[in-house]
Design brief:
Number of helices: 4
Largest sheet: 5 strands, antiparallel
Radius of gyration: 23 Å
Helix content: 25-40%
Order of helices and strands: EEEEHEEEEEHEEHH
Strand content: 25-35%
Strand order of the largest sheet: 3-4-9-6-7
Shape: elongated
Length: 187
């Protein structure tokens, strides 16, 4: 049905590497793959196998789970988008990780499930996160620029009327002079 590759870390692995929970859910225990270093795995490539008959209104959704935390949606593949390289933004572990030395360790997992396409958020979560980070960094740049020109009037910050024009002009000039400048905002 599907396969995965961890870029620069694995050979292609098919569905048999995953534990099947039911007819539409599979889980890969990261302890069996990388042990406790699960958070060093930053990307996964998931792909549909050629003879898969996934209905057009369905998707294979990919989730990650750090020990003790809930599953987090990372992206999906569909018949019209049969492969994707997805970022794995591992959440911080939560809850008790291991109570006793002889207890089975709680491990990180990658989950795959067949879901209705209409119920899923954007298929490209990483792109949305990059856009959000870019917007936040540009906003922070504007705020810092405005702060250097502001005065205080009681509990209000006062800035010159043309501050946005001045900031935008400086921003554009810097971007023209240094092509790497904007790349720093997209990290």
């Amino acid at each position: 049905m599907f396969g995965v590759v961890f870029p620069n870390r694995s050979f292609p692995m098919d569905i048999s590497t995953f534990t099947q929970i039911d007819t539409t859910h599979w889980v890969l225990d990261m302890n069996t793959f990388v042990g406790e270093a699960y958070d060093s795995i930053r990307e996964v490539c998931i792909f549909l196998i050629n003879n898969l008959t996934l209905p057009p209104d369905k998707a294979l959704a990919v989730y990650i789970q750090s020990p003790g935390s809930p599953f987090l949606f990372c992206g999906a593949v569909t018949v019209t988008r049969p492969s994707a390289v997805l970022s794995l933004p591992w959440p911080e572990p939560g809850g008790p990780l291991q109570l006793t030395a002889d207890a089975t360790p709680i491990s990180a997992k990658i989950g795959v499930s067949v879901e209705d396409l209409a119920t899923l958020p954007s298929l490209d979560v990483a792109a949305e996160q990059k856009i959000e980070r870019l917007a936040l960094k540009v906003g922070e740049n504007l705020f810092n620029f405005m702060q250097s020109f502001c005065g205080v009037d009681g509990s209000k910050l006062v800035v010159p009327m043309d501050i946005l024009d001045r900031w935008f002009k400086k921003f554009q000039e810097r971007a023209k002079r240094d092509p790497e400048y904007l790349k720093g905002f997209a990290l």
